[in-house]
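hey team, just a heads up i'm posting the complex here instead of the shared drive bc the drive is being weird again. everything in one block, sequence lines first with there labels, then the predicted structure for the whole assembly after. its two chains so it's a bit long, scroll down
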Amino acid sequence: MAIVVGAITTSHVPAIGTAIARGLQQDPYWRAFFDAYRGAHDWLEKVRPDVVVVFYNDHGLNFFLDKMPTFAVGAADEYRYADEGWGIPAMFAPFRGQAQLSWHLIESLVHDEFDVTMCQEMQVDHAFAVPMALLWPGVAWPVMAVPIAINTVQHPLPSALRCFKLGQAVGRAIESFPQNLRVVIVGTGGLSHQLEGTRAGFINKDFDLMCMEKLVSDPTALTRYSTAQLVDLAGSQGVELLMWVAARGALTGQVSSVHSNYHIPISNTAAGLMVMENRRNVLASQRYTEVEWL
Amino acid sequence: MDAHKTATPIFGGELAQRGYALNKMCYSFNHATNRAAFIRDEEAYCSEFGLNEAQRAAVKRRNVLEMLQAGGNIYYLAKLAGILGLSIQDIGAQQTSMSVEAFKAKLMAAGK
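-- predicted structure starts here --
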């Protein structure tokens, strides 16, 4: 059977992609940020995943406002990055999909009442590609991928609770997949930032650090925030925290924090990184009881 | 827009409907040929996508707050900003009436 070995959550700022393209990893502005990913590289070397399931938000590459799915699951053999007009060079090698796992996820999610949009073609933007390049620099790519897009462009957005439950349903689906695959969940976006309005440049370090702590110890605490509260506390784009909440939902009730980093600023953003490992000794029957009351 | 909406616009149904033409134009900038066409003849390109007066004026004035008020979504507007050679810090500074240096310093200070 497939197992979820853990999750990595990371920011996905477009400027990171530009920095990679220009080879600025050791530039004074960037060095501490990039160096922090060694902790993730070491862990990935140890757990050696076959597949990553990536929760990310599309920024107007694959989806336009004409038809905006709340949740969309890729079901293709290959995914490509494409020009999104933001100046990141088309430097990312194509990403191999795992369509069988995708369809299994779709079957299981719809059975669990998550009526996802199914995508046999799906271009992936910087929110997918930049984290892949951060986690596997210069290596194209030692894992297969299944992208899951969550709408954070056009309100109403799904709630944190809904995203957490989606993550739980994804975790259950993966662990009922009959092939022996080691799966790492990736959640991209955040942490606090805001690009627009007279509050542009808003960053909330206290809130971010609280979220990073709760994500490990008590993720259901984060599911109590409405999306309006998340926008208020984390900024208009800080609401991408929803991807982190979804990724955490796919893990067991208890996780070990392997590595983390918090760095202000990258562009307009408070950049975060977390590596969490599933505690395998948690009995499957006890895994999801902590949120039954919700 | 009232002060709260100007500080943190929520891009829901009302703005999404108001800004549809502007955002659709910006969505077209995913393609280099369309970016070139905009640069060649900006007004013609805006007409082709049916931008209203407020949207055209905001684009002409390079005014991000006005674009937002006209229904622009920042993810789409960022594609336009790229064509105009404006970074995220440039447009942050413009919206907050700060110099770019002061805006960057504010971001750095948030980490202290």
